[in-house]
Amino acid sequence: MLFTRRNREKYRKIAAILAFLLIGAMIIGILLPFVTYAAESENFIINGEIGFNNRYKVGGTTPISLEITNEGEDFKGEIQIKILRQEYGNVLDNIVYAKDVELPKGSTKKFDMVVRTANMQRSFNIALTSGGKTIAKKTIYATAFPPERGFVGVLSEDPQSLNYLKDLELGKTVGSRLIELNENKFPTDINILNDFDAVIINNYDTSKLNKEQIEMLNQWVSGGGTLILGTGPNSDKVLKGLASDFISVIHKGTADATDFFEMEQLGGRIFDSDQSLQTALLEIKNGEGILFSGNLPITTLLHQGKGYVIVHHFDLGINPIAQWDGNRYMLTELYTKHIPVFAQKSNNEDQYYDNSSFLSPYVLRLFPRPEQKGLLIGTLIMIVVYIILVGPVLYWILKVKDKREYGWFIIPFLAFGFSGAAYLLSSNSGFNSPIGSSVGITYLKSGETSSVIDITAGFFTPDTGESKITFTKDIHPQISDVDQSFNFRNNGINNTEKKEIISAKIKIGQQDELIFYNDQSWAMNTVTGSHTVNFSGPINASITFKDNKLIGSIQNQLGFDLETCILVAGDHYYYIDNLKNNDTIHLEKEISSSNTKGRYEALDEIFGPIYDIRGMNTKWGSELSKEELQSLVQRREIFQNYTNRYYMIKQGSYGINPKDLLSDEGSSIVLYGFSDESLLGDVKINDMAIANYSQNLFVIPLEIDYSKADKIEIPYGFIKPYITGNIGFDMDEFENIVYLHSSGSMDFTYSIDSNIKLSELQIQFTTNSSVDGAYIFNNESEIWEELTNLPYEGDVEKYRNSEGKIQIRLDVLVDNQKDNRIEVPKLRMKGDKQ
User: Fold this and answer.
1) Within 10 A of 497 (CB to CB), how many other CB atoms are there?
2) C-alpha angle with apex 797: 796 to 803, nearest 5 degrees?
3) Are residues 439 and 695 in contact, defined by beta-carbon separation less than 8 angstroms?
């Protein structure tokens, strides 16, 4: 008995020690998320990094860097990385990214791969495989950041001097989202750069970046990114690698800034240093001063496409700015004041904001179908002939010849022959071989000769099982979020049993491959990708306003025609049909607030009632073929999907969304045109060439040219407001309507170029039961005056502040018994060039 007790006590101690070791291991695993486990095979040493210093953004494009040493025999196989796609109950659906690899004996090689994450994934399994067998593997742990929080990149030769930038409030504190970059780590993939909220360059020689990296940086900013430059004594070094057409700067020497009043106001701290701030005297083309030391501009804002460049005329990493305890507060206030996306993230944690273009899978199914009348008639004729031939004709012949016993092999022979004929006839239809349907969207500025095309493609095959899609162009293929084929492939899975499956493999190499497993016949596999397209020439335009008309010209030198062209000018839609290659069209379009239409009404007028065949034939003046009808339906759906944006601001938000809502790509005039040119490149499915139907939308923002005009007039609908309010509201851009959730006030702020001297302005607004009062702010008297629909003439400059902004306020009341909505007020103006 005593022996038993001693043993039990001994076992308890052993169990306690094991439990302590287990808990300790778990704690170490939590505290050390970046630990990598050794490869299972002693012949291979695998080291790697996920994203940036083992940090990545969920839903983003994540670079993976691997270094593999082979201490065994020569190896040829694949690197495979497993990424969790979705979880369906107890079923884990994974995608494998793969790359061919050759490792001679004793060699060490580096490999770079790019993956698209979809879920918060703490561990990434890296495997070396050969002949379907796993030879070695390793697990790398990484920290995931939520999709709404991007990285902030820093290029600097002394990054430690910028550590205070971790305390910036851009949505939330930057913290560990601050990523140190260099010329070796700076992305050359625009999709990776899109995971960054901002890139900061300070005390860094930008000429170290290669041409491709500079082009990606320019493209990223133009697409909506924010570039922040710290210059001062290092201005020449910071600016010399940047393209002059991207940022045009004339360096006029240096000056010492000693007046820090504005910085103190923004930072809420006294600048208690006796040191002056060494600044560079920079003249920046199209720049706007946003921070001053007295009358000396020390920070300039430059709009570049849809993005922003902030140029600090001082170095962010040297004293006195680097040691000032108000530096992070000052920069936070400055950035959120002038960069809409930062203000949006900072002021509203609960806001839902969707400005992405959703491409419905329905659009991809609208590729032309071959006419089936001939096939149907031919099939009916064969059936009739077969019935007659096998029935009375054959019976009569055999009876006359008294050879009726031959019927036992003549009838099967005829059946076999007619079946073969039916097969040959059906083989001429488009439904017996793989088919592709792709939609490309290209944002192309006037004057540009190259751009990135974003592609969504649907692929169909009659085969079941494995479908291998091969691309000749490097488009970085990804499985689209709209792909619903998983639901069809895996209906037979028992969700009560925990199971892990591989639904697809993306293989990157000289030719990109995407393999879908367990495919069903004619299931649509949806793939997204992008690549750069070089055109023969640019779109050139010269457009201005005169006498309430939009006049000018547009020239097409792309190398192909643009069809179904639509010019969107403010709230007006003009159908200009085709813009042929090497052709110029001349515009003279009447602009009147009385003939504006809602988008749906305008699109019905342009395309016709697409679901009413008789109405479509009447609209286009002839009977449309099925292919023509499908093309019109598809183009309308693409245009509508692309331009249909919706902003929802949840109840209880305050002072949010100081953003240029309702603007089409940052421009009030945009040319949209379609082309069915094959810009995707050749595609094969299971090594068979396919018929690929392409439809591409070109989005081309155009600028107003006032270079030859002394008088300037801008009609209603062209100057779009920032919208802020102490209420909750939804913004429907498609109909120019604000839906109200609570009573309060809403401010509409209109920005007018400071180079224009105002002579007249007028606000068009609608009063209804939801509007309790309408006001305009007088900057001279600093009071809100009652707003009128009548023109303001004479001394109208008093309604514009020093930043060129005009403020309108509507007091709104919400009645739960009514449909509470208001139209966004519109502004028109006249003026002279300063």
Assistant:
1) 9
2) 140
3) yes
CB burial of residue 786 (10 Å; 0-12, 13-18, 19+):
exposed
Q: Any idea which residue has 């990214």 for tokens? A: 97
Give the alpha-carbon dihedral of 168, 170, 175, 176, to 10 degrees: -140
Residue 607 dihedral angles phi and psi, to the nearest 5°: -90, -25
Look up residue 182 and give its DSSP letter.
Answer: -
Two structure tokens written together for 522: 């004619």
Cα separation of 470 and 263, whole Å?
A: 56
Closest by CA position to 648, among listed 350, 337, 341: 350
**For residue 136, what pLDDT is reported?**
92
What does the block give as tokens for 393?
């004709």
Q: How many Cβ atoms sit within 10 Å of the Cβ of residue 317?
A: 23
Task: Give yes or no for a contact between 779 and 798, defined as CB atoms under 8 angstroms apart.
Answer: yes
Q: Which two tokens stand for residue 292?
A: 């001053």
Cβ atoms of residues 287 and 302 within 8 Å: yes
Q: Residue 158 to residues 58, 168, 186, 241: CA-CA distances in angstroms?
A: 29, 18, 16, 18
- In 115-249, alpha helices (H): 190-193, 211-222, 235-239
d(CA 256, CA 275) in angstroms, rounded, equals 9
Q: Which residues of the chain have pLDDT under 50?
A: 1-8, 11-12, 15-16, 18-40, 346-357, 483-492, 646-666
CA torsion 9→13→18→21, rounded to 10°? 170
Residue appearing with tokens 């607030």: 593
**What number of other Cβ atoms are within 10 A of residue 425's Cβ?**
14
pLDDT of residue 358: 55
Reported in sequence order, the residue ranges of 217-343 that DSSP labels E, i.e. its strands, are 226-230, 249-257, 277-284, 287-293, 296-304, 307-312
Q: Give the other-Cβ count within 10 Å of 803's Cβ.
A: 13
CATH topology of domain 711-833: Jelly Rolls (2.60.120)
Q: pLDDT value at position 498?
A: 73
Per-residue tokens: 287 = 């720049």
Nearest-angstrom CA–CA distance, 3 and 243: 85
Question: Residues near 226 by Cβ (< 8 Å), separated by ≥ 6?
Answer: 197, 198, 199, 307, 308, 309, 310, 335, 339, 341, 342
The second-level CATH assignment, the architecture, of 44-145 is Sandwich (2.60)
The class level of CATH for 151-347 reads alpha beta
**Helix pair angle (373-388, 407-426), 10° resolution:** 170
Residue pair 205/213 in contact (Cβ under 8 Å)? The answer is no
Q: How far apart are CA 323 and CA 689, in angstroms?
A: 64
Count Cα atoms within 13 angstroms, Cβ side, for 176. 11
| Token pair 């009128």 in the structure block, residue | 788
For the sheet with 722-725, list strands across it: 722-725, 744-751, 805-812, 771-778, 783-786
Q: SS3 for 420?
A: helix
Give Cα separations from 183 to 51, 171, 210, 279, 307 (angstroms): 16, 28, 8, 26, 22
pLDDT digits (tens, 9 = 90+) for 89-103: 778 888 999 999 999
How many alpha carbons fall within 13 Å on the CB side of residue 337?
A: 13
User: E strands, 24-90, where?
Assistant: 44-50, 55-57, 61-70, 75-88
The answer to whether the beta carbons of residues 750 and 764 sit under 8 Å apart is: no
Residue type, 165: L
Q: In 3-state terms, what secondary structure has residue 708?
A: coil
Please give the angle made by the CA atoms of 798, 330 and 290, to the nearest 5 degrees: 40
pLDDT at 393: 64
**Where along the chain do its domains lie?**
1-32, 44-145, 151-347, 373-426, 711-833
| Structure tokens that stand for 28 in this block | 């170490």
pTM of the model: 0.74
Q: Which helix (H) or strand (E) holds 211?
A: helix 211-222
Q: Rounded to whole angstroms, how far apart are CA atoms 385 and 477?
A: 50
pLDDT attached to residue 402 = 65
Give yes or no for a contact between 220 and 193, defined as CB atoms under 8 angstroms apart. yes
CA angle, 37 then 41 then 46, to 5°: 50
